[in-house]
Amino acid sequence: MDKDILRKLEERLGPLHARQRLGIETDHEAQVFGQGLTFFHLENLYLAPAIIRNALKLTGLYWRARRNAERIVVRRNDVRFAALPSLFDHYTILHISDLHVDMNEAAMQNLIQLVGGLQYDLCVLTGDYRGKTFGPFEAAMEGVAKVRAHLKQPIYGVLGNHDTIQMVPAMEAMGIRMLLNECEMIARSDQRIFLAGIDDAHFFRVDNIEKAALQIPDSEFSILLSHTPEVYRQAAHANFNLMLSGHTHGGQICLPGSIPIKLEAVLPRRMGAGAWQYQNMSGYTSVGAGSSVVPVRLNCPPEITLHCLRRG
After folding, report:
1. Which of 36, 59, 256, 311 could form a disulfide with 84 if both were Cys (CB 3.0 to 4.6 A apart)?
2. Any idea what the Cα angle at residue 78 is, between residues 114 and 83, rounded to 5°?
3. How far is the C-alpha of 118 from the C-alpha of 140, rounded, in Å?
4. DSSP 3-state percent helix, strand, coil across the chain (nearest 5)
5. Beta strands 222-225 and 242-245: pairing type?
């Protein structure tokens, strides 16, 4: 453990929170069975990349799937809210998830070209910045820095199940405000909305929606960033208006019609990709800009999303 990173984490989170969070990582990092919301964690399995790669080669789909993983598309999602303050009508959020920046350099170059021409008011990153779930993270931080250089402020982010808390000092040093069960107010003149973000809820189970929502007054418009959409019930009951997530990759390797074989998540399949609604809360699950385990995609193109908030 780098002493400088430890010092910065203790300053940022407090000594007790920093020690607890690091201890949880040490206890469970790279665990294949148990821990988290699902019992089996494919991304932690050492042989998973070889198994998937060889299976695709046997079917003759491997190189097509590799090319697909580089072709990032821009999705647009208009979402209406009666409670949205009038000055935030047409407020646009660029949503980027599951970069896994060290998995596919060509995909990241395409992403950089795409974001340069986009117009938006806020950028949010919903976790999984590195390819592996354990080990060194310096290459991932170098990749994130390259992408960050082409993004406009303000930028907020949360951690995913592939990420270590040790990334936080580096990410905040490059101008990405990480929300670790925290909330920020965004103001336009005398009107405001609230943006909250939680720590990883899928694998390390270090999320705390109650703490994140504590600063949000009743009836105020609020958005929750969570790497995984699996905590949609808790978010809805905490009265968030909008929840933005990733994690599922939309299945990444899908049957024709974008039907996922496996989502690696415990939730209704309708919430596995794109826009959805639960009770009074709107949600969106990004299929991600990068790829997990192996840089391949079938019937599920990678994406970044522009969410346009509309009043009405």
Report:
1. 311
2. 130
3. 24
4. 30, 25, 45
5. parallel
CB 283 within 8 A of CB 242: yes
* Contact call for residues 289 and 283 (beta carbons, < 8 A): no
pLDDT tens column, 64-113: 999 999 999 999 999 999 999 999 999 999 999 999 999 999 999 999 99
DSSP 251: G
Provide the residue count of the chain.
312
- Return d(Cα 285, Cα 293) in angstroms, integer: 19
Average pLDDT over residues 22-48: 91
Q: What's the rounded mean pLDDT across residues 149-176?
A: 97
- Diameter of the chain measured on Cα atoms: 61
What is the amino acid identity at position 279? Q
Q: In this predicted model, what pLDDT tens digit does every residue of 251-301 receive, in sequence order?
A: 999 999 999 999 999 999 999 999 999 999 999 999 999 999 999 999 999
* 1: pLDDT strictly greater than 90: no
- 242 Cβ partners below 8 Å, 6+ apart? 79, 81, 222, 223, 224, 281, 282, 283, 284, 307, 309
Smallest CA-to-CA distance from 145 within 184, 112, 106 is with 112
In the numeric block, the tokens 């079917």 are attached to 59
To the question of pTM greater than 0.90 for the whole model, the response is yes
Q: What is the DSSP string of 266-292?
A: SS-GGGSSEEEEETTEEEEE---SS-S
Q: Helix 15-28 to helix 3-13 angle, to the nearest 10 degrees?
A: 120
Q: Can you tell me whether residue 245 is helix, strand or coil?
A: strand
- What pLDDT is attached to residue 46? 86
Tokens of 308: 């346009």
Q: Which helix (H) or strand (E) holds 178?
A: strand 177-178
DSSP 3-state of 80 = strand
Q: How many CB atoms lie within 10 A of CB 201?
A: 26
Q: Which amino acid is at 212?
A: A
Q: Please compute Rg for the chain using Cα positions.
A: 18
> Which residue has tokens 């390390």?
204
